[in-house]
Amino acid sequence: MSVLVTGGSGFVGLNIASELLAQGTDVALFGPAAPPAGALAHLRGLKGVLTIAEGDVRDRRSLDEAIAATGASRLVHGAAITAGLEREAVEAIRIAEVNLLGTLNVLDAAVAAGIRRVVQLGTGSVFGSVPPDIDAIDETLPPVPDSLYGITKYAAERAAIRYRQTRGLDVVVARLGVVFGRWEYDTGVRDTLSVPLQLARLARAGEKACFRAGLPDDWVYAADIAGAVAALLDAPATSYPVYQIATGRRWSITDWCERLKGTYPGFDYALSADDALINVARAAPTARPPFRVDRLREDVGYRARFLEEAAFEDYLAWHRAGGFETPSASPQPADDRAASMGAGR
């Protein structure tokens, strides 16, 4: 029985699909368009069977048809519009339709089809601006979203919890840290690409990166997200409705830039407060404290495999191989002792 992944052509969805297919699980990618050719070539070379199911989460019929046609028994819901301030001003209704109403369609379709487990991808944006006296965020901190993206995603999160409580749907929300990694590209629904991707592009071009202090630094490598989602799908039972997937630590952006300098001699970087010089965008006005991952560790044995050195080496190998232009092998950490997944890995 396969796993249906909504938003499957986005970079997080592609990483999840790669993980599941490598394990031998059949995967159906659901979205308005097929993934880029390089991603398809990679995914079709893995153990599981890949199916492409084109559709839109705003269209309940297309969801029902995709679940029936693929025989999906589990589902990962990742479809969303990660909107910035400019898009909020012109596409508020569409953002709500996809992020909230689309989620309700997915949950209703899952109930109707008897889906065994749903993992719904959430976001740290539900927390908005966190008080300065908080040094780490666990799942019990009350969210106060301050962007339309965060507001709609928090509403979707609460809807999933309600379905878990009242509709008998085995659904969990997985809030993601600040994700980066292989397969990231501009899909048109993420208004700000990850800081590591922006830095990598500047480094490869031999340009200087200028950015403000306080860039988001609760980074997590996409392969670790994928492993954790697979573990949540496979867990015999889940103790909580909400889990957080991250590394549980801050990353040093200056250390990351120093690694890039050592690899790309023409690259340099600097902190700046001059808007005319800033060329590294950020999705949030300030960095939030890192996520705690105790629940995930206790329930599925999660440990992040790709910390700074392993993530950099894998990410560098990915870019040197051409990124999306060249299909490449599944990611491997520089040191497999760094971590393991107790379930689903």
Automatic annotation (TrEMBL):
Region feature Disordered, mapped onto this chain: 326-345
Domain NAD-dependent epimerase/dehydratase: 3-245
Pathway: Bacterial outer membrane biogenesis; LPS O-antigen biosynthesis
Top-rank taxon, per record: Bacteria
Gene3D superfamilies: NAD(P)-binding Rossmann-like Domain
Signal peptide: none
Family stated for the protein in its record: Belongs to the NAD(P)-dependent epimerase/dehydratase family.
Protein name as it appears in the record: Nucleoside-diphosphate-sugar epimerase
Organism: Enterovirga rhinocerotis
Lineage: Bacteria, Pseudomonadati, Pseudomonadota, Alphaproteobacteria, Hyphomicrobiales
